């Protein structure tokens, strides 16, 4: 088994990786790093949350020359939040080197970006549209680019960025190294690769399933108008550390976030119609746990890495299997466990089956939780908290008062009252959600086909490193 050292990583970077808590390379890192340091083009596919960012990020810093202070590498990402996150991860990896990465994305003051560009970042992490703006203004020149990385390339194609990507690649030198990374590899990516990559290595760390085994997957069959009450029950019973609730449309996300807030949950919504400032505030609050439920459209499905996300709720079933894989991949990251639960209306059941077939993983049906079960779940949590506190001790300050109380009230009533106070009783504040817009399957999705053609590469390379989950 390789270590970062045997992969030839320099000490400055190993020191940073140690600080980040990376002890050994993940399988995709182990296989991609040697190929990338050798300068080859690469198509890399590995399950969600398995460290693809560092797989391209580590070799990037190894290759940066500190001579001409020009932009030497560009990473393209489909969303602004991902640009920010990837730049942060790169800057952690490169913290002891001379090089740094700058995120450049739409919705942020362009003059401020131009000012940051004066600090001469060697790596730019950008959304395609904003990078094009800078190219037109000549505030970013791509003439010295040696490496281009397309993270989540298929999503950039879905979003209609193909022309921008072509122009960006066209503005970079032909000798550049081009790298493509995603958890899923639908067919249009193969076409893109054929056109822009030179004799690429294909590395796929693919287990039998597209999704990470550590993510438990369940669904509940339910009518649309019952979904919200059931979501609240699930949240009460399961008490996720952090959770993401995915809705189909922006309007749906707004309504859901409002409805959850009305019932006393610490929730907020994120989608593409909010101002960039607002999007960043919401995400920051979620990362800090100031809110613990993030209600989101597809904008949060790709690449987002937030520690502590224990539950994913698909309030609406995703459009296609890829979207499902990426959405639920926001949990179960870096070896952590997670639960993904999808609410499915009877009409959408065939679509769920199609997702199962494509991801090669059964999604378990669970019954609709009853209101009584929700209350029981809550009580169980209160008891757990109480017992935990008993174990933790440090109760001397309270014992005198407890004895006084026990002299006048019987112990069962007393404890019941304490539990009642600690239990979040179901909140039935009436809320109104408009009916869901019906599921529209992309024409290329093909879920009507009997034998779905998935368009995925067949796996050639199996994970060699079983110790990294
Ligand atoms: N070698 C490692 N050891 C421990 N943790 C790691 C290692 N490499 C990456 N991580 C951590 O694992 C998490 C997931 O990594 P990353 O975001 O790169 O996943 P990904 O494969 O790009 O997932 P996605 O397909 O969802 O974009 C991050 O928090 C990252 O810091
Ligand atoms: Mg990623």
UniProtKB/TrEMBL annotation:
Residues 437-469 are annotated as: Disordered. GO terms for cellular component: cytosol; ribosome. One of its GO terms (molecular function) is hydrolase activity. Residues 2-30 form the DEAD-box RNA helicase Q domain. Pfam families: DEAD, Helicase_C. Residues 214-374 form the Helicase C-terminal domain. A motif (Q motif) lies at residues 2-30. Keywords: ATP-binding, Cytoplasm, Helicase, Hydrolase, Nucleotide-binding. Residues 33-203 form the Helicase ATP-binding domain. SUPFAM superfamilies: P-loop containing nucleoside triphosphate hydrolases (SSF52540). Belongs to the DEAD box helicase family. This is ATP-dependent RNA helicase CshA. It comes from Lucifera butyrica.
């Amino acid at each position: 088994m390789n270590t970062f050292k045997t992969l030839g990583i320099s000490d400055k970077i190993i020191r940073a990786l140690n600080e980040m808590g990376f002890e050994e390379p993940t399988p995709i890192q182990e296989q991609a790093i040697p190929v990338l340091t050798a300068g080859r083009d690469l198509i890399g596919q590995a399950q969600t949350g398995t460290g693809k960012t560092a797989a391209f990020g580590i070799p990037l810093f190894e290759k940066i020359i500190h001579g001409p202070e020009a932009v030497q590498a560009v990473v393209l990402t489909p969303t602004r939040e991902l640009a920010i996150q990837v730049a942060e991860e790169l800057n952690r990896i490169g913290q002891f080197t001379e090089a740094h990465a700058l995120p450049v994305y739409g919705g942020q003051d362009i003059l401020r970006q131009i000012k940051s560009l004066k600090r001469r970042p060697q790596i730019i992490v950008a959304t395609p549209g904003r990078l094009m703006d800078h190219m037109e203004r000549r505030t970013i020149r791509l003439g010295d680019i040696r490496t281009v990385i397309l993270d989540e390339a298929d999503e950039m194609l879905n979003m209609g960025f193909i022309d921008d990507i072509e122009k960006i690649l066209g503005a970079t030198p032909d000798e550049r190294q081009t790298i493509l990374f995603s958890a899923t590899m639908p067919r249009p990516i193969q076409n893109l690769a054929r056109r822009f990559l030179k004799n690429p290595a294909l590395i796929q760390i693919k287990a039998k399933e597209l999704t990470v085994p550590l993510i438990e997957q369940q669904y509940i069959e339910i009518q649309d108008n019952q979904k919200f009450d059931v979501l609240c029950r699930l949240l009460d019973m399961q008490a996720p550390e952090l959770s993401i609730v995915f809705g189909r449309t922006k309007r749906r996300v707004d309504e859901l976030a409002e409805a959850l807030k009305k019932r006393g949950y610490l929730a907020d919504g994120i989608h593409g119609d909010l101002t960039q400032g607002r999007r960043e505030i919401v995400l920051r609050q979620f990362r800090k746990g100031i809110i613990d439920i993030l209600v989101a459209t597809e904008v949060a499905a790709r690449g987002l890495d937030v520690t502590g996300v224990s539950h994913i709720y698909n309030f609406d079933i995703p459009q296609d299997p890829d979207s499902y894989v990426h959405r639920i991949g926001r949990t179960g990251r870096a070896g952590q466990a997670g639960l993904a639960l999808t609410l499915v209306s009877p009409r959408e059941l065939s679509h769920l089956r199609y997702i199962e077939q494509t991801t090669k993983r059964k999604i378990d049906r669970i019954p609709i939780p009853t209101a009584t079960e929700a209350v029981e779940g809550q009580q169980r949590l209160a008891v757990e908290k109480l017992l935990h506190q008993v174990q933790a001790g440090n109760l001397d300050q309270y014992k005198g008062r407890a004895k006084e109380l026990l002299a006048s009230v019987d112990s069962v009533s007393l404890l019941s009252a304490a539990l009642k106070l600690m239990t979040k009783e179901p909140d039935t504040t009436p809320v109104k959600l408009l009916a869901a817009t019906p599921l529209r399957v992309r024409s290329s999705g093909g879920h009507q086909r009997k034998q779905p053609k998935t368009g995925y590469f067949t796996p050639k390379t199996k994970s060699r490193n079983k110790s990294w989950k």
